[in-house]
Amino acid sequence: MKTTIYIGTSLDGFIARNDGDIEWLVKFQNQEVDDSYQEFISKIDVIVIGRGTYEKVITFPSWFYEQKVYLLSTTIKQVPDHLREKVTILSMEPRELINYLANEGFSNIYVDGGKVIQSFLKEDCIDEMVITKVPEVLGRGIPLFGYLQNDLHFKHIRTEVFSNGLVKSHYERDRE
């Protein structure tokens, strides 16, 4: 089982504005960025998101994900009819969820959403991080990282600079 974060942040570490707005990020989307995401997502067989990410994604013109999505939420009780086959709502802690997904036959989890990512990091349940820095400073917003009781060491694998100024860095958890 492999868990991966693939996310964009502002230079000061925010994944969205306080109200969830990501227009500052979306304006950097181009074919190069799309191709990079497609390369990543082609290796993923299941996606785990939180309420905030779900509430943002359902505002898009069409459902964004092709893979099965597990929505971690204690407040959302059902999804619209057209998403019932695509989204399953669960309320589990990261390790419990990983075991559940492994038993369901999944092996590559894409973990998305600020609070969900933070909960997985708190339980040391992230194997890889692909973080793309966007050349914007927001000053405030929803942070990617939160408080951890213990340091987590990641090994830098590679960094790629896109023509539009985005800088994508890939890290793997170093458990030695």
From TrEMBL:
It comes from Solitalea agri. Residues 72-167 form the Bacterial bifunctional deaminase-reductase C-terminal domain. This is Dihydrofolate reductase family protein. One of its GO terms (biological process) is riboflavin biosynthetic process. InterPro entries: DHFR-like_dom_sf, RibDG_C, Riboflavin_Biosynth_HTPR. GO terms for molecular function: 5-amino-6-(5-phosphoribosylamino)uracil reductase activity.
